[in-house]
Amino acid sequence: MPYTAATPPLPETPEELRARIPGWGADLDPAVRPSYPKLLPPDVTRYGAHWTEPERQTEHAPRERSVEHAHLTPVFGTAQPLHGLAGALRRHAYARFSEARAAHWLLLVAADRLDVVEHRLAAPATRRALAGAAVAGAAVLGARAVARR
Amino acid sequence: MRAMVYRGPYRVGVEDKERPRVEHPNDAVVRVTVAAICGSDLHLYHGLIPDTRVGHTFGHEFVGVVEEVGPSVERLRPGDRVMVPFDVSCGSCWYCARGLLGNCHNVNANAAAVGGIYGYSHTAGGFDGGQAEYVRVPFADVGPEPIPAWLADEDALMLTDALPTGYFGAQLGDVGEGDVVVVFGAGPVGLFAARSAWFMGAGRVVVVDHVAERLAKAREFAFAETVDLGVVDDVVVHLKEATGHLGADVAIDAVGAEAVGAPLQHAAASWLKLTGGSAVALNWAIDAVRKGGTVSVVGAYGPIFVPVKFGDALNKGLTLRMNQCPVKRQWPRLLEHVRAGHLRPSDVITHRYDLEDVAEAYETFSAKRDGCIKPVLVPSP
Fold first, then answer.
1. Does the N-terminal peptide bond of residue A11 adopt cis geometry, omega within 30 degrees of 0?
2. What is the Cα–Cα distance from B336 to B349, expressed in whole angstroms?
3. Where are the domains of chain B?
4. Residue B5's beta-bridge partner residues?
5. Is the pLDDT reported for residue A129 higher than 50?
6. B107 to chain A: which residues are within 8 Å by CB?
7. Does the beta carbon of A99 lie under 8 angstroms from any beta carbon of chain B?
């Protein structure tokens, strides 16, 4: 009990634990644990980089970025570029508010919900539009064939 | 190619997508052999992470074979069998150069606060992930490593995130000989954290969860004592009584953003999606650890506000340590543990799905049904 200086006893000795649990105590020494110390002396080659500053990826279209970055990062993801109303909302969130602002994140959350709605609205409309175009095209071709006879 | 695709909260499927290309000279394109679903993928699945776009491919845990490399890639060749850390790292920014590979500043244009993570929304950089047939791997000279010939694919897969992160959780706790360690969460990360605490000389390891199969795994795989939070009246009081009213020396939060146990917090987080998560496990960690102890956080949280009992942390003089795990930095020591037979990482895998069945995989994993602890996905050959 912490009402005295004594520490509650442990149910097993280190020898009993070592016998029961494979690898018990193998990393007792903090020096063998990776990620120690937290910050290593800087060395860009340590993990395989052969540059001090990476080449820059080509920006084919304006890429949104956090205003907390001084510039677009040298490498960036290209998945799902911004589009539609959700994209406009997202672009506004990135351009107008830093990550420190709740508005930044709340706008992104709202855009996520809008994104789903836009996609659901677009899917059947696209199918209807394609089906309608196919029917109209078939009707035109059929009418021309009849007219040529 | 076929790829998992997000369509909205609780809606995922598989669609044809364009195969990724080399977009930067140090990119590689990897053909995925096997990928895993992470507990943190469920936060994406539930719509909890801001800027998760329809069409995004999830998956930050994958191994595979190099298909193509960019012109500046020196260390890998097509045909190499590789394991890839979940962190996208440049190796040369302020953070990577000092070993903080999970905090790279050169790969995530969308958020300076977050490093780059495969398949984890645009908040983590907007890289499509590895729950697909192919994946773009930036900085191929820095992150990926050839898988040792003696290491099976599924064991290597657990080394891309779950095992390094679990070990990291124990290391952040600064576990010393004889320490009493409490781990919140018996998912794969919690199981590996509990196991790793023993490597560091823990005297007792207690795992807290509410799913029977996971608690059983904690006893059998992690040699831990267990507490079912669905059975005890007050988890913190129970842990205090179990530790002579001193509290644990180290508490590890391996739950993160969707902790159950506090209905109001859970409602705000999971239903209204208004906060960065429900911090129940973190608050229990703060309350269950002894004064002067250490709380380690490796559970994932989103970037919005989360209610945390900071007053208790202050008054108890706690040390709080946390980060996204610098995976590659963990590998040398972890490979030694695996080679020495101290653990077999693939022991936590419980379910294997074809990539085409990804919707069922997510649904089962999210519902914690059928004893699902760790599901993996295999693209069809």
1. no
2. 21
3. 2-161+326-378, 165-322
4. B13
5. yes
6. 73-76
7. yes
Structure tokens at B242: 């179990």
Residue linked to tokens 């703060």: B286
Contact B223 A21 (CB under 8 A): yes
Give residue B273's pLDDT band: very low, low, confident or very high (50, 70, 90): low
State the average pLDDT for chain A. Answer: 92
Mutate to test the interface with A, among B11, B15, B104, B122 (most CBs of A within 10 A): B122
How far does the CA of residue B302 sit from the closest CA of chain A (Å)? 10
Is the bond preceding residue A37 a cis peptide, omega within 30 degrees?
A: yes
Interface probe with B: pick from A43, A80, A82, most Cβ of B within 10 Å: A80
Tell whether A6 lies on the interface with B, counting CB pairs under 8 A.
no
Integer Cα distance of B314 and B318 in angstroms: 7
Which of B7, B92, B139 lies at the smallest CB-CB distance from A53? B92
User: Which pTM does this prediction carry?
Assistant: 0.92
The residues pairing with B378 across neighbouring beta strands, listed in sequence order, are B354
B171 touches chain A (CB under 8 A): yes
Q: For residue A136, what pLDDT band results from cuts at 50, 70 and 90?
A: confident
Give me the residues paired with residue B82 across strands: B64, B146
What does the block give as tokens for B97?
A: 């150069």
Disruptive mutation site among B199, B301, B334 for chain A (greatest number of A CBs within 10 Å): B199
Whether B90 contacts chain A with CB within 8 A: yes
Residue B310 CB contacts under 8 Å (≥ 6 apart), including other chains: none
Q: Tell me the ipTM for this assembly.
A: 0.92
Please state the φ and ψ torsions of residue B145, each to the nearest 5 degrees. -130, 145
Angle at the Cα of B194 from the Cα atoms of B188 and B196, rounded to 5 degrees: 100
Shortest Cα–Cα distance, B214 to chain A (Å): 19
Judge whether residue B269 has pLDDT over 60.
Answer: no
CA distance B56 to A51: 31
Residue A66 token pair? 């956090």
CATH superfamily of B2-161+326-378: Medium-chain alcohol dehydrogenases, catalytic domain (3.90.180.10)
Q: How confident is the model at residue B259 (pLDDT cuts 50, 70, 90)?
A: low
Instruction: State which amino acid sits at residue B114.
Output: V
By C-alpha distance, the chain A residue nearest B136 is A77
> For residue B359, what are its two tokens?
């919707």
Partner-chain residue, chosen from A34, A55, A108, that has the shortest CB–CB distance to B333: A34
B199:A23 CB<8 A: yes
Measured CA angle at A45 (ends A43, A51), to 5 deg: 105
Strand-pair category, B225-228 with B116-117 = unpaired
Whether residues A34 and B112 touch (CB distance < 8 A) is answered with: no
CATH class name, domain B165-322: alpha beta
How far apart are the C-alpha atoms of B92 and B46, rounded to whole Å?
Answer: 35
What pLDDT digit, counting tens, does each position of B35-82 carry? 999 999 999 999 999 999 999 999 999 999 999 999 999 999 999 999
